[in-house]
Structure formats: structure tokens, C-alpha cells
Amino acid sequence: MDANPAAAKALLEEMERDVQQALDEAAQLAQRIYPRLLEAGGLAAALRSAAVSAGIPASVNVAAGSTYAPEISRTIYLCWLEALGHAGGEARVTATVRDEDGALMFEFVEAGARSAAAAGESSTRLDGLRDRVEALGGRLTIESDAGRGIRVFGSLPLSS
To answer: Are strands 103-111 and 139-145 parallel, antiparallel or unpaired?
Structure first.
């Protein structure tokens, strides 16, 4: 350091940028995994916010004032993030969440033309969510066909 203070200063500045970038990425990951808005504003607000952040026009239909167990809200939120992540360029996405016979039914539909390769890719990546939903006693179905977009739907029991 004493021999070349300019080089030492440049190295420290580079390290500071790297640390700041790592902290920013960790904060973004934490926000994706469990956004504060999910707890503070509820599921509907979190779903809307995720769509706005992704820059995707979306219609979110969740009963006003509905509250669910954190693990149920978090799981539905993660499914929504995946559906948004697979939405095509000019896509419009619709989210519907409703209570029905002791279960929380959810459906995310992205209506957009997709190639056969993109449809298969999306379905494969979304399959990873199935384990999370089934671990809570729920079901998850993914339909993705060329030219039709993607539909993610399922249910989670509201009581154990």
C-alpha cells in the first residue's frame, strides 16, 4: 500500500463496488423470495407490484382484504413470479385467486403466441414449483403450448 497508494486506492474502490453489487443482488433476491409488500399489503398488492416491476400488463383478481397463511401467500407469489418470467414480449397476464371449498384456487394465464421451443422450456422450468405446492398438500398444473401462451393453475388447502 505504501509503495503504490494510487493502486491500493483503486483496488479498494473496486472492492467497494463489488461488495455493494453483492449486497444489492442479495436484497433483490430477498425481495423476490419474500417481499415486504406480501406481508404489509397482502397477496393482491404483491402480485400487482411484481407485474409492474416486470413491466408486464396484468389483471389481478384477488378478493379485497383476503389474508392467507404466509407459506400459502409466498408459494402463490413465487408461482406468479415464474409465470411473469415466462411471459412473452407483448403478453398480457391475468391472475385469479379465490377461496373455494376449503382451498385457495389460483390461475395465472399468459395469453401470447409462443414457439414450441419456448413452450417446452417454460413448462420444464415451472415444473420445479410443483414440489413446493405439493409440499403444502396442493396441486399444480402447467399448460404451455406453441401459439397459446402458458397457464399455471392449482390449489392449496387453507387448513392443514
So the answer is: unpaired
pTM, entire model? 0.72
Q: Which fold has domain 35-157?
A: Heat Shock Protein 90 (3.30.565)
Cell of 72: 400459502
Q: Concatenate the DSSP letters of all residues of the chain into one string.
A: --S-HHHHHHHHHHHHHHHHHHHHHHHHHHHHHS-HHHHHT-HHHHHHHHHHHHT--EEEEE-TT----HHHHHHHHHHHHHHHHT--TT-EEEEEEEEETTEEEEEEEEE----HHHHHHHHHHHHHHHHHHHHTT-EEEEEEETTTEEEEEEEEES--
- What are the mean pLDDT values of the chain's consecutive 10-residue runs (160 residues total)? 83 88 65 69 88 89 83 90 77 90 91 53 66 93 76 86
